[in-house]
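Teaching soon. Got one?

===
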Amino acid sequence: MSISVNGQAVQAPEDPRVSLLDLLREHMQLSGTKKGCNQGACGACTVIVDGQRVLSCLALAVQFEGRSITTIEGLGEPSSLHPLQRAFVEHDGFQCGYCTPGQICSAVAMIEEIRRGVPSHVTSDLLSSSISFSHEELRERMSGNLCRCGAYNGIIDAIAETWKEAAE
């Protein structure tokens, strides 16, 4: 069985102890996904698995056999950026850029969570199938992705602009 990474079939590693992060970085040379804390606390290693956010440092690659993984490399290309990648550039949503791939992957999946009606800690009506996208909701949902440089205002502005455009 294989794993789909950015649309490409990849064999699961023979060693069941290989993390998803190490599969991506060391075995596939996809260096966009970053190894930050390697403990699941910073979000730098966030990738999208079947439309949901996953901290790749905490997951074993063999857990993802038959599943679809999207990394930052799978979202866009230099000549054709994903709308959120473009917004990060326009709003200066990065400084050193280390956390940026995880921030973007997390935000892409977060927008889909809201569309599906998945509540967060600050969602006022847990029974509603429609969640309003607010500044408070956005900050809560992105709180698992840390930025050492403090580019949070640009990050939030980029996500808010992209969500507004996606909702229209």
